[in-house]
Each structure stands twice: as structure tokens, then as C-alpha cells.
Amino acid sequence: SQELDASASISTKVLTELQKDSTFNLNYNSAFVSTFNYSYIAMNMKPDGIKHKKLFTDKKVRRAMALLCPLDEINKVLNNNRNKRIAGPVSPLKKEYNSDLQLIPFDIEQAKKLLDDAGWNQLDKDNVRYKMIAGNKVRFEFDFNFVNVQVEIKDAAIMIADAMNKAGVKVNLNPVDPKSHSLKNKTHDFDMVMSGWVLNFAPEDYTQTWHSSSWSSNGDNYTGFGTPETDALIDSIKYEVDPAKYIPMVKRLQAIIYDEQPYIFTFSNMKRVICHKRFGNCEMFFERPALLLNSLKLLATEDKTAKK
Questions:
Q1: 211, 262 in Cβ contact below 8 A?
Q2: Between the N and C ends of the chain, which has fewer C-beta atoms within 10 Å?
């Protein structure tokens, strides 16, 4: 109906269908644009042991959770393989991305073995794993938080929960509103959460998301990741301006995070951008909001189907 001038938030499914429509293509410029952003699934590494059980304190368990995420299938089914899988907290668009880190495959049997090794090797009557801790039976059951704003997010959560269930892990889906989602993350009031970070081209200060001080102050280190070694490395990265030194340091940090697995890194996401052809000078970029609005020029024509 041509009621929209521009958008950068249409779903992958919708834009894919629109691009098959000749009328849409006649009236709109459109593109899937790479971004510096990435999505992830975070696990609470420092739970209180009361409201949130100590499920993810062992990195074997965290790696098992990563092995139970069918990310390639999610990308295929929900994103038409548009998004790019990642292995660490750096955009693949940047030189400092550690391409030596291997993507973690979907492997239920390997995940089961790791859970067995970590002591979660007994099954309850409903086939949910459990472990005896201090004389108490602790079931491997947890809440999986995600924002309730997009059906694709919910669908991805359902696919992950179904896969984990096959390994004896019970996942309770917990959709929350964006405001509550942010508050729960910062106060560590979660077991597992699916979210994402919006980044840009500039060198990143990893203090915000990975320094231990950001966990104790209820900052953006939601998981509790951090040791004196990684804190010192982050402090050094922050002040290093020589690329020959900076890039290896960032790659080393990524390797440590990869090994500890506080996040399950999912995708570097694509922006879905459209702009009506009544506007000229339409340029699309990696940076938010992906469309440079102040450069658009309304064309001197009354023909709504005029091409750029």
C-alpha cells in the first residue's frame, strides 16, 4: 500500500517475501545489510543458589548447552540463512575478530557426555537429569528468558528448548517485556537469557560487558564472567592504540571467553532495510539505523512508482 517511507525493522521472513513481489520492487529499494551487532544466549555463572540454582557454574555444562543449540537450523528456518554465525564477542566485520575459533556444532550426544561428566548423570521419572547436591536432589530445570516483542525470537527459543529436552534438560520458556528483561539481566535475576548487543565500527571497551567490576555494580556483565587475568587484559586493551598489539590482545580475550563459555554466541545479525523510491540518494550502511535519513532527497515527481 506504500504507506511506509522507510524501515529497518521488518522481519527477515517478511522482507524475503516482499522481494518476490514485482510491485514492491518497483516502488522500493531494499537490502539485507550487515551490521556490527550480535545476538547471544547468556548463562548465570554466579547464581545465588536459592532463587536461581547453580546449574551453569561448571564450564562443561555451559559447553553442553552450546552443543544443544541448533543454530544452523534456526538460521535456515527463521532467517533464510541470512545471518552469520559467530564464535566470540566481536563482529566479523572487524579485523580483531578471532577467526581461529571454531563454530560449536549441534551435537546432542557430545552434550550428554559432558553433562554426565559434570555429574548430571541421573534421570528423574520424566527423564529430566538431576544431581544430588548436599543431600538434596537438584533437577536440571531452568527458566529461559527472552523479550516478547518478535515472534522469531519466541520461535528460536522454542527450537532451543526442544533440542535441550532431548538431552534431559527441562527448559521453561519465560517471555518478558523489554523493561523487565533489562532489569532482570542487570540484577542477575535469570538462569538463561537470550539477547543481543548493538555495536559500532569503533574499537570496543570490553569493560562494560566482560570486566568483573561490571558484574558487582549491576552493569552489563550479566553472567559473572571475569578473573584477575581477564580484568588486567581488558584494562590493557582499553589503552592500547597500536593495532599490532591491540588485535592480538583482543583475540586472546575472545579465546578465553570462548573456552569459558559464559555466552552461547549465536549470530551477527542482518538489518532488513527498505526505502521508497520517491526518495533519492538512498544509502544503506553497517551502522545504526542502517539508513542515513538526513541524506534522503524527496524526488520532484508525483508518480509514486517512479524509480530512483
A1: no
A2: N
Q: Encode pLDDT of 212-243 as tens digits.
A: 999 999 999 999 999 999 999 999 999 999 99
> In angstroms, rounded to a whole number, what is the distance separating the alpha carbons of residues 39 and 156?
12
Diameter over CA atoms, the chain: 78
In the three-class reduction of DSSP (H, G, I as helix; E, B as strand; rest coil), residue 32 is classed as: strand
| Spatial distance between the Cα atoms of 159 and 170, rounded to a whole number of angstroms | 13
Q: Which element (helix H / strand E) includes 143?
A: strand 141-147
How far apart (Å, rounded) are the C-alpha atoms in residues 287 and 201?
8
Model's pTM, two decimal places? 0.87
Which three cell numbers, joined as nine digits, stand for 33? 545489510
In 3-state terms, what secondary structure has residue 253? Answer: helix
Instruction: Please give the grid coordinates belonging to residue 188.
Output: 542477575
CA distance linking residue 63 with residue 84, whole number of Å:
20
The rounded Cα 262 to chain-centroid distance in angstroms is 12
For residues 38 and 220, give the distance between their C-alpha atoms in angstroms, rounded to a whole number: 15
